[in-house]
Amino acid sequence: MTHPIHIVGAGMAGSEAAWQAAQAGVPVILHEMRPQVGTFAHRTGDCAEMVCSNSFRSDDDVNNAVGQLHWEMRAAGGLIMTAADRHKLPAGGALAVDRDAFSADVTAALRAHPLVTIEAGEITALPDEGNWIIATGPLTSAALGQAIAAETGADALAFFDAIAPIVHADTIDMSVAWRQSRYDKGETEEERTAYINCPMTRAEYDAFIDALLAAEKTEFHEGETAGYFDGCLPIEVMAERGRDTLRHGPMKPVGLTNAHKPGEKPYAVVQLRRDNALGTLYNIVGFQTKMKYGAQTQVFRMIPGLQDASFARLGGIHRNTFLNSPTLLDDRMRLRSRPQVRFAGQVTGVEGYVESAAMGLLAGRMAAAQALGRDLLPPPGTTAMGALVHHITGGAEAKTFQPMNVNFGLFPPVEAKSGRRGRKDRYPAYTDRAKQDFQVWLSAQ
């Protein structure tokens, strides 16, 4: 008889992992600490409770990476997407749901499955044997978090993270910005041009500081507060300490020469650093912030060169337990030091309901394949699911790894069939290729 897979956490990832493994014919024990042990964000003990938005974002599987991820999860018989479609609400091009009905549906489906057992209670240690998936999300309990930290090293597990905004490289105006590392540091041309620099005049800097200080900020949730440390101060907190603090900190103009105006010294410079191996995404260095998302877009587009910027992710500072997955997990999502343990969901460094559920889907299928004596390769990187798992298990820079939503910047570049290079032409090329490659991956199982 096949030994059961133990899954810790019945959120989006854990629920999907349990469903996928059970559908493959492997018994599952799903451990959930709620409601015995609560969190500041959850209200119930139901599976897949939506604690923030009730939206799964865009459902456009032709022009949007999130919509393509929806398509792949539906193609794989995902429980989360089935329940979401069943409880869909009018939301334009987005997939929004009745959150309570959705969660109740997921819970009922898992409880009714003959191979799924839901056990209440907190898991406080990493197992020494068996076949386990840890899908505890950003609100991992203190005891389990300490056990993970003890196994991985405290530096490899973030309990409170600072997130800098990430920009799609092809939306940066390079007629204003230029590539150069500070003081031209580096042994190769690639290293010497590793940063993209956006210059500011004094007037532009002063206007930026005024907008930054006036922008609407978010507050910490109860139970989420933590003291700032100087290594990740929000930029607005730095600006509050003095108008010149930023230009003597992350926006210092020293060691840089504007390639477009070499005789004109910038008053301040905003630097962007490559965030993925493909060079399609750049993060704004030192720009972690508690500004609300709408304010971030307005303020950051005041930066010369970013006036038309498209953001793959906006900034933030919040409680979010996640692994430095590129250094800790293999491409089967297993902990390298304990291969009997897989991780799934937000704890792996993905952001969002859909991304979390997708990583649960993969972990569940991979764990089931192992239980049945097989090995399941991850989907190809040309698919939404494959691009995401590749990013968190090796494609991202480990030193700057932060949670990420799925986006086309994670996909290998593709040329549109017409040969045109506009995003409207490329997006369908990405999704056409992804659908074809995902179907091939599915059919091989």
From TrEMBL:
PROSITE patterns tied to this protein: GIDA_2
Boundaries of every MnmG N-terminal domain copy: 5-374
GO MF, one annotated term: flavin adenine dinucleotide binding
Entry-linked Pfam families: GIDA
Superkingdom of the organism of origin: Bacteria
Function: Catalyzes the folate-dependent formation of 5-methyl-uridine at position 54 (M-5-U54) in all tRNAs.
Record protein name field: Methylenetetrahydrofolate--tRNA-(uracil-5-)-methyltransferase TrmFO
Provenance organism: Paracoccus chinensis
